[in-house]
Amino acid sequence: MRPVAKGLDILQGDKHIFMGYLLPTLVSIEEHLNKKLTEVLYVKPLVNALLKGIRKRFHYLYKYNDLRIAACLIPDFKLRWIQDENEKKEVTELLKSVQEFNIKNAEVHSSTPKEQKILRETDDFFIFNNTLDQN
């Protein structure tokens, strides 16, 4: 059950709190549990129940493009966590379309020096919970 505990530690930790860690972590948990199926004898029903529960609870998340793209943009993962070649091609096309959109959007919405000055002037305006604690 170490893979489940390790995966939960990663997802609940304070170092890897990016949305892109979710799917690769789930894939890794499943891979570790599948490997355990061949190694264990007495706890196979428990491992099978964990696999079934993880698939039932989280299976729909693999369809969200934003989660898939976020995972691929983390340098440690890239496309390595995707096992199916067709899905790799699909996500690669998604990444290309996001890149094209960003390039097109950057040309249309590039900030002028005047807009940059306004942004700098408003830097001290934004306060969040952590800055409220300091006052």
Automatic annotation (TrEMBL):
PANTHER family: HAT C-TERMINAL DIMERISATION DOMAIN-CONTAINING PROTEIN (PTHR47501:SF5), TRANSPOSASE-RELATED (PTHR47501)
Name the record gives this protein: Zinc finger bed domain-containing protein 4-like protein
InterPro entries reported for this sequence: RNaseH-like_sf
